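Why do we bother with a discrete structure alphabet at all? Because it lets us treat a fold like text: something you can write down, compare, and reason about line by line. To make this less abstract, here is a complete entry for Cytochrome bc1 complex cytochrome c subunit. Read it the way you would read a sentence in a foreign language you are learning: slowly, and without expecting to understand everything at once.
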Amino acid sequence: MKKLSARRRHPLAALVVLLLALACTGGLYAVFAPADKAQADETAQSLTIEEGKKLYSVGCASCHGTGGQGTSDGPSLVGVGAAAVDFQVGTGRMPAATSQGPQVPQKKNIYSQAEIDQLAAFISSLGAGPSVPTEEQYGPEGADIAKGGELFRTNCAQCHNFTGKGGALTHGKYAPTLEGVSPKHIYEAMQTGPQNMPSFPDTTLSEKNKKDIIAYLDAVNSEKTESPGGLELGGLGPVSEGLFGWIFGLGGLIAVAVWVAARTAKAKKS
């Protein structure tokens, strides 16, 4: 007993007890704290989904079905992902008007970003799909504008024009202008392929490729950018410029020819 009592009164005994107490406290915190945080995050996500479901029931279910399964008036939303919701609702294309034409046009947005996030969370809960991109993914940092121009002309210019001014398609459809469209929405459009546009997943255009294209569009549509060739006729391309040449150029030549013929005929009469 004397030996045990002596060990307890050892100068290092208090330090050992303190270290054991700290180790136990740290272990208990490591076990219970992450669970509490995860539970809080799960609760917050559940509330977000529930609020999104309420918004969906009011503004979307009549066309897309109560469970997002789709109806004769609207496609299924299962698996479209948060990016599709953020694009379609954020650009005002959804909810669509009751009388739809060949293509749903962009219009003023009626939802706040917080409400769009709630709708996106609910739709994502129905099935996995592309997520909303971060600013790091679509921001200009590290982008190659020249490479973006090459990629855009190869994959996008056939519909959107080489400067993104837009253009006509078949049966009343059209490729909208990309001027003034936010980089996030351009990225989401490439991810999801809205309406008549094909999708460009990372297997087709990598995240870096998308960033380069967005940087190119920002450069060519910037207010500070001036056309080195002077008047560009709206940047609509060779069709509009050729039409302008035929109508005004050829029309001017015909007018001159008629005027010369009239003067010649008048001179002969004199």
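What the structure line is telling us, in plain words: Strands lie at 167-168, 174-175. The mean pLDDT is 84.
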